[in-house]
Design brief:
Pfam families: p450. Helices cover 50% and strands 8% of the residues. It is an alpha+beta fold. It has a single domain, classed as Orthogonal Bundle (Cytochrome p450). The strands form three sheets. The chain has a five-stranded mixed sheet with strand order 1-2-8-5-3, covered by helices on one side. The chain binds protoporphyrin IX containing FE.
Amino acid sequence: MTDAMACPVNHSFDPLGDAYVADPYPILSGVREEAAAFYAPAIDMWVITRFDDIQSALMDPGTFSAAVGQRPVFPLAEEARAILKAGFHAYPVMSDCDPPRHTRIRRHNQKAFSARRIATLEPKVWAKATELVDAIEPGVVDLVSALTYPLPAYMIFTFIGFPDEDMDMLKSWCGNRIAFSWGRPTLDEQRDIASNMVNYWQYCEEFVAKRLAEPVDDFTSDLIRIHRADPESLSIPDITNVAYGLSFAGHETTTSFTGNAVRRLLVNRGQWDDLCADRSLIPKAVEEILRYDSSIPAWRRITTRAVTVGGVEIPANAKILLLLGAANRDAKHFEAPETFDVHREDSRKHLSFGQGIHYCIGAPLARMEARIALDLLAQRAPGMRLVEDQDFDFPANVSFRGPRKLLVDWPQ
Ligand code: HEM
């Protein structure tokens, strides 16, 4: 056994810094080569950089608790906390919850997230994506507002069972929630987001009560049926929490991912042309984009005890940042890891959906939505090009990455 070393400190690592926000990958590669783990004072977190260590942490929920998954990285202002306290009663159910509670709630959700329910969505994803693409006019278009934002938002709300006529209101309540828990929002932003979270929470409570009175054929009603069969095991507040949490998890992630996908493919024009010529390549391309430019390049944990990671000591109660984006380009696991290649055979080994008990429950839906969006774009606009010299604007935060706008020239 080798002696563990004291944890190095990296004073320059700052995921909210301009260079990282513009392009984190050179920084991720640098820190991965330098040390298996380090302390980053800018975010008061211990950061883990390599594939094997990140995989081990994901597979060890006893040591690496998920409890901090949704907690604001930076303390909120008193005013925002007061708004939440008055009307927002969410509690941990899945991504920020440990066993045994996580095991129970996840088991029920896994049932309701059945292959059958996901399959019933496929024609709806095609129909919605087709409607959105049909509405695009030739010329310069922002693909985020035209397609990659509305498609996952509509699909996750439909999946949960929210009625079509509420979509615009729901979308307006979801804005900017990334900044709240993963970034450094201003006081005004905190106030706005907190009020929206209260509205949205109350909407979810009323919606679940409606489904309890009259279940239909949707995901929430499936959970209600599970509740009715065994009320102790899945309570009504549990279901409200799931509905609340899913609307975020299933929405921003996929918007950002599809934006990253279109950008990467159009920058690598030859690979976009290959994909348009042979659309059976799309599922492989989706995995390569997940590996190369995921919408969640980093995720959080907190240690329950002191632990040694890659020979580096990390104390108990250490807030941890797992650099999934660095793991996905670790040369120990991927050949020529910095090369984007949709023909790569082993890209599916990426850690972009996590691994172990918290493995992303929405992975099949996210993959399906991205696949269908790319398929339609390849059919309808193989000649589409990125508008040159545009500045890509990415939100500054520790976990989520995707362009807020993506300007393309849509052909005649
Ligand atoms: C490309 C899009 C997506 C990416 C990159 C992504 C990534 C992730 C990651 C990294 C985790 C955390 C795993 C962990 O803590 O170990 C996660 C968990 C989760 N994701 Fe996703 N996700 C995506 C789309 C979705 C969608 C569409 C949904 C819902 C429909 C969803 C629902 C969830 C839920 C509920 C969890 C928590 C699971 C648990 O803790 O048991 N995600 N996802």
